[in-house]
Automatic annotation (TrEMBL):
Organism: Xenotaenia resolanae
Sequence segments annotated as region (Disordered): 1-109
Keyword Hydrolase recorded: yes
Domain of life: Eukaryota
Organism classification: Eukaryota, Metazoa, Chordata, Craniata, Vertebrata
EC number: 3.4.22.49
Full protein name: separase
Enzyme class, UniProt record, top EC level: hydrolase
Biased composition, class Basic residues, residue ranges: 79-89
Length: 734
């Protein structure tokens, strides 16, 4: 049995780790599993000797990367427990106390996801022409390039300064005679508006979100629509850039194909219209509409924020019915710093936005501590994976499991009564009447609160503790007194016998909060919850559902149209014992077991099948890399059950990046993956229960209904059971 010493795709652990002295130095990772003869990336063979040394040293300083961007290390797997022979356990002899295998792997040698602004501007043709000359410097181009270095080197910057005196620059800046302590709120808003409008045509992912956040802080509850709009604009900027670029490339290809087809038709003498040309024209129109959904707003100083807010209200009306969208981000005044406050906005069709500013600085455990604790747990898991002694290995992992459980409780305490904003709204007709009467009664006592806010809290009152209910009044208004509390409790008691609401929740999280397993809080654990990188990606997926006549979101998943990739590296015998007979015995299913899949076959499968199941290391990016994903629209719902397959790596001030975003850009309607590293046998228990229960449920069954029960099938219900998360929208059986 081999244990991994590190993850290939964990997102941004900050602290370097020290390995205990008793860990053998020559132990290699489970990453080094690929055989050079079967490697999907031939250029990696030349670099294998250089990477061997780095693989051994990686224990001392684990890398923080996503499952998409590492380079494969073509080393021979070595046993992590010296002096003991390796013995394969049969199905009946499987020992529950044996350490599991970490499903980590190094994937994708050529994919660089955290592209710079300059690279986003570059066309495909320019990349092809310059790829040979710039290949060696791509890392410096992305990570270390100074925007002014070229000017200084060539003396152009000095020339520019001579041609543009400082006095001329200062003359064009308003309020230059004012010091920061003399600026009013209106002055600050004016300056922020000017800066935002200057960048809006091509927003920088490291600056634009900060400007939106600062502007949202200045508006607050005085203009909740503008505040929610600005928060929505601050999330998923990089993902929107890449999606726009993808659709632009697709439109250019369709335009070229249409032009070639028109030339061929001109050579014919038939006067009948061409169905192929009509189809191409329709595709061009749909791609242009999708590109418009992801475009950034353009407005001048006079029409801001009125015009963007009107567009935002229209976007809310385009949300799928029954879907609650929750935007969550950490507020910080200084760029690059993580603050202690959370901005939470709730969006739902036909309802006004609700926005909250939750300060956690005075709480026992603030949001910054929670994120750091999560990073610490995942970093410690890498150290524990090096432990060779079975009893100590299990003892340490059980301790980490308890830590994740305590972290989830702390996350729920942090939100308090405001976790009610994360829940779908009840359809009880009495709810609106009770909220309206309570709003009037509280207004007479000097407590100002929106009717929408009261509806949300009253709807979720069954999920709130007594402490949460008490905290609602004190957190809402300083004028809240005992009489207000009696009015509130009376309204709660009249709505206490409702059934649990059924609806779907979509979480849109910033680069800090996406590291935390929000779906596993007790208030959300039994709910249908997924994630999306931005509001615009959700709108795009919803639009795709409406216009695509073949979408599985509309017609459901056909359980006969399945393609599987089971243990392509041939080193997960437990997974083969558990799934091989089942998968291979189904006559309608197609796939491979124990061998790497053919790249062309896999690309065709995800574009034509209804369900894609990957059981192996990582996200399978060595067999279906980020560029292959974007070649054509992905039709299949994807289950990626390797280590950190849904993790987003954060580098510096950039937003999180991972291959999961490429799946969404390519139109994949549903992706299930792991937020961090998992072990093989425990995640296999989750997979087996999930697939068996869902596929046996019959027509119309939603996969989301079986997620919670599948988490309970794992031995470590938090360290492994909490790892699976979902991006996209719910899918049902056909």
């Amino acid at each position: 049995v081999e244990c991994s010493d590190e993850s290939d795709s964990e997102s941004a652990p900050q602290a370097q780790l020290k390995v205990p002295a008793d860990v053998p130095k020559k132990r290699t990772s489970r990453r080094a599993v690929a055989d050079p003869k079967t490697s999907a990336d031939p250029p990696a063979e030349k670099t294998a000797p250089k990477r061997q040394t780095k693989a051994k040293r990686s224990v001392l300083a684990p890398r923080s990367t996503s499952s998409e961007e590492d380079e494969p290390l073509l080393l021979k797997p070595a046993s992590s427990r010296r002096g003991r022979s390796r013995k394969r356990l049969s199905k009946t002899e499987e020992s529950p106390d044996e350490p599991d295998t970490m499903r980590t792997i190094v994937e994708e040698t050529n994919g660089v996801l955290d592209v710079s602004i300059e690279q986003l501007r570059t066309s495909d043709a320019e990349e092809d022409n310059n790829s040979a000359g710039s290949k060696d410097n791509i890392d410096f181009e992305v990570l270390r390039r100074d925007m002014c270095s070229g000017l200084e080197k060539d003396g152009l910057f000095e020339k520019w300064r001579n041609d543009h005196p400082t006095e001329d620059l200062l003359a064009n800046i308003s309020n230059t005679d004012r010091r920061p302590d003399n600026l009013s709120l209106e002055d600050v808003q004016s300056l922020l508006h000017s800066a935002l409008l200057t960048l809006q045509h091509f927003p920088c992912p490291t600056i634009y979100p900060n400007l939106c956040t600062l502007l949202a802080l200045t508006t607050g509850q005085s203009d909740p629509i503008s505040t929610a709009m600005l928060q929505a604009q601050s999330l998923g900027v990089t993902s929107r850039h890449r999606t726009i670029r993808h659709f632009n490339c697709s439109r250019q290809k369709l335009k070229k194909a249409s032009s070639d087809l028109a030339e061929k038709m001109d050579a014919l003498t038939l006067n009948e219209p061409s169905g192929a040309m009509s189809s191409t024209s329709t595709q061009q129109r749909l791609v242009s509409e999708m590109e418009e959904i992801f475009s950034f707003p353009t407005a001048d100083l006079c029409s801001f924020p009125q015009n963007p807010c009107q567009e935002f209200i229209q976007q809310i009306q385009q949300l799928p019915p029954g879907v609650t969208v929750c935007l969550m981000s950490v507020l910080a005044v200084k760029p690059g710093e993580m603050g202690d406050s959370i901005m939470l906005s709730r969006l739902e069709k036909d309802l006004s936005p609700i926005t909250l500013h939750i300060s956690t600085s005075r709480q026992e455990l603030n949001i910054r501590w929670l994120v750091q604790e999560m990073d610490s747990i995942l970093a410690e898991q890498k150290v524990v994976s090096c432990v060779a002694e079975k009893a100590k290995w299990w003892e340490a992992r059980r301790a980490l499991d308890c830590q994740v459980h305590q972290l989830l409780k702390a996350m729920e305490r942090l939100l308090g009564c405001w976790k009610s904003l994360l829940l779908p709204l009840s359809l009880d007709p009495e709810l609106s009447m009770q909220a309206k009467e309570l709003c009037k009664a509280l207004s007479k006592r000097g407590v100002t609160v929106s009717e929408e806010m009261l509806k949300v809290v009253l709807s979720a009152s069954q999920s709130l503790s007594e402490k949460d209910l008490k905290g609602f009044g004190s957190g809402l208004s300083p004028n809240w007194d005992l009489a207000c509390d009696h009015l509130f409790r009376a309204a709660v008691s009249q709505l206490s016998e409702r059934n649990e609401t059924r609806g779907h929740v979509v979480l849109i999280l910033d680069k800090y909060l996406q590291r935390l397993p929000w779906e596993n809080m007790s208030v959300l654990k039994s709910r249908s919850v997924s994630r999306m990188p931005s509001l615009h990606s959700l709108l795009g997926l919803s639009f795709q559902k409406e216009v695509d006549s073949q979408s599985i979101l509309k017609h459901g998943v056909d359980p006969r149209k399945v393609f599987y990739v089971l243990d392509p590296d041939g080193n997960l015998p437990n997974a083969q014992d558990r799934f091989k007979e089942w998968f291979c015995s189904n006559p309608d299913w197609q796939g491979v077991c124990g061998v790497p899949p053919d790249s062309e076959q896999l690309e065709e499968a995800v574009a034509s099948k209804d369900l894609y199941i990957y059981v192996g290391h990582g996200a399978g990016a060595r067999f279906l890399d980020s560029q292959a994903v974007l070649k054509q629209q992905m039709r299949a719902a994807s289950l990626l059950l390797g280590c950190s397959s849904a993790a987003l790596a954060v580098r510096g001030n950039q937003e999180g990046q991972g291959i999961i975003l490429n799946y969404l850009i390519s139109g994949c309607p549903f992706i299930l993956g792991n937020l961090w590293d998992v072990t093989d046998r425990d995640i296999d228990r989750f997979t087996k229960v999930l697939l068996e229960s869902w596929l046996a449920a019959g027509s119309g069954a939603s996969l989301m209904e079986f997620i919670d029960s599948s988490r309970q099938a794992t031995r470590l219900k938090y360290l492994v059971g909490a790892a699976p998360i979902i991006y996209g929208l719910p899918v049902n059986l056909k």
